[in-house]
Amino acid sequence: STQSHGESGSFLQKMDTRYANRRVWLVKIPHFLADSWNKIDADNVELGKVHIGDGQVSLTINKETAGPAASKMPSTYEIQFQSEPASMKILSETKEPKYALEGSVEHLCSLKPIRDATYSQLLKDRLKQSNTKTRVVLPMDEAPSSKSSTIKFDLHQKLAAQQNLADGVKTSAKRDPKEKRERMERDKLENLLFVMFERKPLYSLVQLVEATEQPVVWLKEVLSDLCIYNKKGPNKSFYELKPEYQAHKPTPAAEEEGSTVKEEPEAKRQKLK
Q1: Kindly report the CA angle at 250 between 211 and 203, in degrees rounded to 5?
Q2: With helix as H, strand as E and coil as C, how does the chain read?
Q3: How far apart are CA 48 and CA 43, in angstroms?
């Protein structure tokens, strides 16, 4: 453990460094699984078992501790190893001392659900939920005065732009470049992108920016998790969904019609012991 005083005289908390050299895996997991595990209010709970053999590594979750939602979640996941990360440490908050080093990251991984009937149903439910209308149209007794108020049909214009892009029609309306774009929540943006890619498999960045009305930097960050950017070939400069987020590989005829099926992209990074 260490403690010291900063240059300004402020006290720095003690840190437990006993496990600083312990090797751990940093795993990116689906959002629905992270939500289920975050609801567990207990220590030393077995979340699942890792199976290593025959050149494959997989995880089988413990549905007894995953809660009521476990019946609607896949039970087996493939652990995919990514490129070796830079020097990384796992830091946690404890009661005494306040902070602790839990170990050094040995592998950077992600969980990919193994497709089965349960996972297919989960994707259908997610798509149905994303397409459910949450706004209600109410009749007005009288039209508002143009001097006192102005009605903007932003939602209608956004939906029309998305439909036009999905059908390959260029929109004529242009957005003021000085107008600040408001960031959409990641979950909502991912659902919107999957609905769009279900209609058409390929989009340029300009088309996606116009349809989603999102800041370019934020949109590209989300796209990097969900899509492949083609740098060469016939689909150069276009985005398409990663294979793991497609229910099946589209045939040439399907590509012309622009039909794909989405998978759940949402994920968090958690430590898997």
Answers
A1: 20
A2: CEEEECCCCCEEEEEECCCCCCEEEEEEEEHHHHHHHHCCCCCCCCCEEEEEECCEEEEEECCCCCCHHHHHCCCEEEEEECCCCCCCEEEEECCCCCEEEEEEEEEEEEEEECCCHHHHHHHHHHHHHHCCCCCCCCCCCCCCCCCCCCCCCHHHHHHHHHHHHHCCCCCCCCCCCCCCCCCCCHHHHHHHHHHHHHHCCCECHHHHHHHHCCCHHHHHHHHHHHEEECCCCCCCCCEEECHHHECCCCCHHHHHHCCCCECCCCEEEEEEC
A3: 14
Please answer whether residues 172 and 161 qualify as being in contact, where contact means their C-beta atoms are separated by less than 8 angstroms: no
122 closest CA partner among 85, 69, 184: 69
Which residue shows structure tokens 């992108």? 193
For residue 76, the tally of other CB atoms under 10 A from its CB is 15
**Average pLDDT across the chain, whole number:** 76
Instruction: Output the CA angle 218-82-266, nearest 5 degrees.
Output: 40
Q: What is the largest CA-CA distance in the chain?
A: 73
Structure tokens at 66: 């995953």
How high is the pLDDT of residue 258? 41
Ranges of the chain whose pLDDT falls below 70: 1-12, 85-86, 142-179, 247-273
Q: Is the pTM of this model over 0.70?
A: no
Residues 78, 83, 84, 85, CA torsion sign = negative
Rounded-to-integer distance, Cα 164 and Cα 179, Å: 22
Assess contact for 177 and 209: CB atoms under 8 A. Answer: no
How much is the pLDDT for 68? 77
Would you state the structure tokens that stand for residue 147, as one six-digit string?
A: 């001097």
